[in-house]
Amino acid sequence: MKLKTLKDLVNWTCKCNCVTFDGEICRRCKKPTEKYGEIDFDDVKKESIKWVKRYENNLEYWEKHPEEGKRGNHIIILKDKILWITHFFNITEKELKNG
Fold first, then answer.
1. 36, pLDDT greater than 70
2. pLDDT recorded at residue 55
3. Mapped to the 3 state alphabet, what secondary structure does the chain carry?
4. 74-94 pLDDT, tens per residue?
5. What residue spans define the domains of the chain?
């Protein structure tokens, strides 16, 4: 499964491929960027649920393999990532189960 980033969901690049925002003048080529419309936050939330599920799968692996080195670090990092994503995007347990 390929995970998308916010940049994949919204085109924020100008013709010279610099990252810009809607209607902003590019600092490199000095041309205005096109207007791209609004971000679909439902798509962003769906994608964030995919990221959480992927991290949960990784967490499950590390919890089942205590013999692997640096196991504790991986578990802590994955739990922190899951926590901030679910908090930031207001993802409920029900959404994780259904999504």
1. no
2. 94
3. CCCCCHHHHCCCECCCCCECCCCCECCCCCCECCCCCCCCHHHHHHHHHHHHHHHHHHHHHHHHCCCCCCHHHHHHHHHHHHHHHHHHCCCCHHHHHHC
4. 889 999 999 999 988 888 899
5. 10-39, 40-99
